[in-house]
Amino acid sequence: MTIVPMPGRAGRPGLVRVADAVDQYLEAIQTATTRASYAETLARLVEVVDPSPAALLIALDCDHYAATMSRWDSAAAATWNRHLLALTSFTTWAQRQDLLDTNPARRLERRKPARRGDRSIPRTRLDTLFGDDQNSLRERVLWRMLYETAARAEELLSLNIEDLDTEFRRARITSKGGAVEYVHWATGTARLLPRLLQGHTTGPVFLGCHRNTAVTGREVAQLLVSVMRVLRRRRSRRGDLDAGLRSCP
Q: Would the keyword Transmembrane be found if you checked this record's keyword annotation (predicted)?
């Protein structure tokens, strides 16, 4: 941001109206998005001080800044911090211009964003998802294998039956870097996988109905889309349930 001297400062540095100083400061901000964001905060500041005697910049104090920020008392921490940053930035600019000797923002503090905590899905909810017969067997095997192996979706979707070692509960995959590795699954996958294979010994595991033809990228994309649709539906239903529980006394 470019620092532009305020006109007419010589000998009377503080006799500048707040609105004029705000306009001069915003003009000096070169980034349009920042200028628009700060303009909202500083417009509130002008509302607080005008047309009182405190309209002069030199008369700004902590009470004016507190009254300005009171509009966002109930806002999220990120919103509060964004508006506070606008005030502190304006204050720093005014001090560099020798228009302010004090810091009216000194009593205001940044807020800490609320911690989201553990975002992992509870095991009981996963078991419900994996065991829900409303979802096809293919999807449930894929979800189980993704969960138990921690492999990438593309790696598992590209599996052929020939890559499976059901005796040792493992599969041979080609990792992102091209290296051949093994991923291992647990009891849940081991129970469902034979039902999906239906005795077939060749062909894709998840695509093409175990045909002996190459799997296309389009088929991989279609299965990924179907999986994401089911997950979004279940997430939406769970969100509605959680909202209802929160509304209960």
A: no
- What is this structure's pTM? 0.46
Can you say whether residue 169 is alpha, beta or left, with left for phi > 0 and alpha for psi between -120 and 50 degrees? left
182 neighbors 149 (Cβ within 8 angstroms):
no
pLDDT at 8: 42
Average pLDDT along the chain: 79
Residue 38: the pLDDT is 95
Residue whose pair of structure tokens reads 């052929």 in the numeric block = 160
Cβ(106)–Cβ(88) under 8 Å? no
And the tokens for 198?
């239906």
Residue 215 near residue 158 (C-beta atoms within 8 A): yes
d(CA 209, CA 199): 12
DSSP β-bridge partners for residue 172:
182
HEC per residue, 72-132: HCCCCHHHHHHHHHHHHHHHHHHHHCCCCCCCCCCCCCCCCCCCCCCCCCCHHHHHHHHHC
pLDDT band at 154 (very low <50, low <70, confident <90, very high): confident
Cα three-residue angle 151-134-122, rounded to 5 degrees: 50
